[in-house]
Design a protein that fits this description.
single chain, 113 residues, mainly alpha, Methane Monooxygenase Hydroxylase, Chain G, domain 1, 3 helices, 0% strand
Length: 113
């Protein structure tokens, strides 16, 4: 099925055979255009928050791999609020955030044993 779109906006989806050409439909109402703007802004914010979260988790993992339990504990203390806040902001599920904190703390605890 082909959708009618303005000239120059024929970005095809890459799924399915050529007989099922699908074409993106451009937003053409005021509310749809506003929704596109809002979504793009939220996407940028979410990417930034997700990157921050990953950075803090990476710091913990780096300290663990270096074998520095004190630094790993400090890094975890900084990373835990970011993970939980990410869960509150629906960047990742609440259980996922809790599981990551739990696994990181278990790895740090295992370093001392």
């Amino acid at each position: 099925m082909r959708l009618r779109v303005p000239v120059g906006h024929t970005d095809r989806l890459a799924d399915g055979p050529a007989s099922q050409d699908k074409v993106f439909k451009m937003a053409n109402t005021r509310s749809a255009k506003k929704a596109v703007r809002k979504i793009s802004r939220r996407t940028q914010v979410n990417k930034s928050r997700r990157g921050q979260m990953r950075t803090f988790v990476r710091r913990v993992e780096d300290a663990i791999s270096a074998g520095d339990q004190g630094a790993a504990n400090e890094a975890l203390k900084q990373a835990q609020p970011y993970l939980m806040r990410a869960a509150q902001q629906n960047l990742l599920p609440k259980n996922t955030a809790s599981r990551r904190v739990s696994r990181l703390s278990a790895r740090i605890k295992a370093m001392g044993a």
